[in-house]
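Reader question, answered in our methods column.
A reader sent in the components of a multi-part assembly and asked whether the whole thing could be modeled at once rather than chain by chain. We filled in our standard form and ran it. Here is what they sent:
COMPLEX SIZE: two components
ENTRIES:
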Amino acid sequence: MKNLLEVDIKVPNQTKYLRLIGQIGEDVAGALERFNDSDPEELAYHINLVLTEAMANAIKHANKNDPTKDVHISINLTDDLLSIRVFDQGQGFDISTAELQAPDPALDHGRGVFLIRSLMDSVTYNRCETGNVLEMRKSLLQHGGKKERGSGAES
Amino acid sequence: MIITSKDFDKAIVMIIEEERLDAHNSNELKSQLMNQFEEGKSNIIIDLQHVRFIDSSGLGALVSGFKNAGSRDGSLKLCGLQKQVQSMFELTRLHRVFEIFPSEEEALASF
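And here is the structure of the entire assembly that came back:
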């Protein structure tokens, strides 16, 4: 499994950095376009969105809006897998009960984890040395086999 | 957050002049909506034509405004959704909750 791209970034625990991280996600989607049949704009949006949702959860729910804390984001792209990890420094929050179905449309909160689960193939949330890590994975394989790639993919 | 408001007889149009409506600025939208309600304006059109990205917080702020408008016998409607923003409403089934119009004119005509 060839490691094509790795991005590690640490940002202060503030929502003003959501735009920056989302934009990095869109740029990573540009590298992914060669592997995925999805609409490139849609793919860019989805990666922006899962990063934004995961980071906002880390800032507000795990790190409790504490501006002295950080959020660490690690994006890893291989031939067949996009993996995004978001590390917080808090006590964590429970995602197990949340949002496998679309939440009640009348509620004004609680759609974040649902959106992540809808757009990624797997989502886990575990303790780590410095706090917790939310890991989101998306397979880049087509059903039944490996995706055909454009000639530029190996460069 | 930059919002341009236009007063019409039937409703007030609030144009969100931001590319992103997310956890960073959605509370500001909520409070600007609250200001309108407190001034007695409860028929509101939110024009999202400039918004190319919305997250769950942005959707939540709109739902909150929708409920507040309804509780004041008004309504909150949307117009100008870009394709990816529209798809977020569909994914969360909120397209069944809001009245969504292509343009401000069509939204105004519905009041």
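What stands out: Chain A touches chain B at residues 15-16, 18-19, 22, 41-42, 45, 48-49, 52-53, 56, 59-60, 102-103, 105-112, 114-115, 118 (CB under 8 Å). The first strand of chain A starts at residue 3 and ends at 12.
Send us your own complexes using the same form.
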